[in-house]
Specification:
2 domains, single chain, globular, 12 strands, 8 helices, about 350 residues, alpha+beta, Jelly Rolls
Amino acid sequence: MTTKEIALVHGYLDGTILEAEFPRLQALLRESPEARALLRTLATVDTRLTELGAGTKGASNLPGMLEVEFAPQRNSGRGASQWRPLAAAAAGLVIGLFSASMVFAYVSATGGKAISLLLESFEVGAFPGVTGMPSSPGYWSGDYTTIVGGSQGIKPASGKKMLQILRADYEGKPPQFSYSGDLYRILDLRGHEADLVDGKALVTVDASFQGIPFQPPNEYAFNLALDALDALPTSGVSKIHRKQVDRSSPSGEELAGSFIPASAQRGFKFSPNGGGWQKARLELRVPPGTKYLLLRFHIMDAKAAREGERIYGETAVEFPGQFLEDIQVSLIRNVPVL
């Protein structure tokens, strides 16, 4: 990259880029993988430094949650201080290209607020529970898993540990056919009512996944899901998505002002040749009144799903080598509805 091209990237991040320069930045980012990598790296570093600075302020943060306040743009003296166009975000040019790091850059540009709800690389803390869906916030639970270092030629994406999905059942689950290994965590949003009240809050989830190589007809899939709830889940995932309705109304019409749960889900395929760590990303606009988020990861044996109980009987699938790492969940407020 040339010095001028590098200056364009820095200008975007520090708020000094001119409106006339922005089309050049757009073209550069479309055409240059090196420029995209530089922007992603610089935005991530800037975010981490801001997080560290915010972390030293102390007592106002909720336990286990890191709040990041982004400073307003500074005036460059070139008439650019208020220009970081929302139109670029609306066009999907910047946010669409750069995943989570660019969301942080966008939030920084608008003087918004981002809150890190979860940073998990499985380096410290207790092993996930193996008793199915958790009943309260703050810990992992689900099907049989373990935390390992390098395994079967796969090394952690960062640090020295990663999570391995072992089986598609959990402790005490009655014998039955099951092809999905599940992992859950409940995140507590109580105390963030002010961040959600205008309906402009966005939650982003990023995760890395990798599996050992496999041959057809074997096939494995990774599903990432997020549910916004107004109460702790007590009856299983199948009932989470029901809307609150007027039980006394024969028509079942929704009560005015009642909370309507929101959900988002994305599916990905494991690379058959291994191919290194794959990235998964999900976004959910969080409705006002949300008290909890249910974070769900599902590793699925697609071949077993096709063949079903006829072949497998009342047994749960065992996974040969599927891993999960680097989970990040962030709450971003004041994201315009496009």
